Amino acid sequence: MTSVSELDSATTALVDRAVATLSGRRVAVLTGAGVSTDSGIPDYRGNGAPVRSPMTAQQFMADESARRRYWLGGHLGWHAFSSAQPNAGHEAIARLEADEFATGVVTQNVDGLHVRAGSGRVVELHGTMRRVFCTHCGQVFDRRDISERIEIDNPWVAMPENIPLGPDGDVLPSSTDGFVVPDCSVCGGLLKPDVVFFGEFIPAEKFREAEQLLKTSQALLIAGSSLVVNSGIRLVERARRRRLPVIIVNRGVTRADNRATIKIDAGTSEVLGALAAGLAATR
Questions:
Q1: Which of 230, 232, 263 is nearest to 246 (CA)?
Q2: What is the pLDDT of residues 105-161, one digit of tens each?
Q3: Pair (227, 108) in one structural domain
């Protein structure tokens, strides 16, 4: 767990304002990649983030070489990605829910860290890396089982140390020659991680679940998201139409800064910990 450092006076004042604004309200929490950076998972767009060209769903489905690159890169990064631990920000959000301040969390992340931190109601908008499914017969597999199969079919693949992990747990392999892509053990069909690729739409029922969580809330707290992805900005618009307070905690600019009731430009672990402590003190 990442420790929570002391906040400067200006940030502390903003946190105090946020506590006063959220006090007595049930809060929906929306999180992005910035919440997981303190767990060692890099952000797509934060300061210092490497320039990446994420694979699209069309590339993955149509190009066998693209699938080899995806599965090999994902396998190389899986052990580091799956061993990442919830940080102080994840734990603060879980406390907000346990203390009945938060109605739940909607996340754009696929790392599963909110679930592991103890959050009970988690809407994973973009899916989860924990599951893999067959695009032909629909059979669902645990990612750990697929990883074991890859190791058996590709014994020559060595796990490098200190690999530059990507936001979705993958790395860029130097070569994919000879790599055997896993297929469905039931029907031999094409396997796909249970995540929303670039170029895919979020399932309608999943977004309705996020909307329902917001409908039962009286405020929206956004943490670690630049809101570049449309799913996040759509929820902000839903909150704005209902005139709900919107609190944004994010390092750097977001698409909704001009719509925020309060914007806190600071680390999510520190600020979320302070928010959770401050709200608990209002009881």
A1: 263
A2: 999 999 999 999 999 999 999 999 999 999 999 999 999 999 999 999 999 887 666
A3: yes
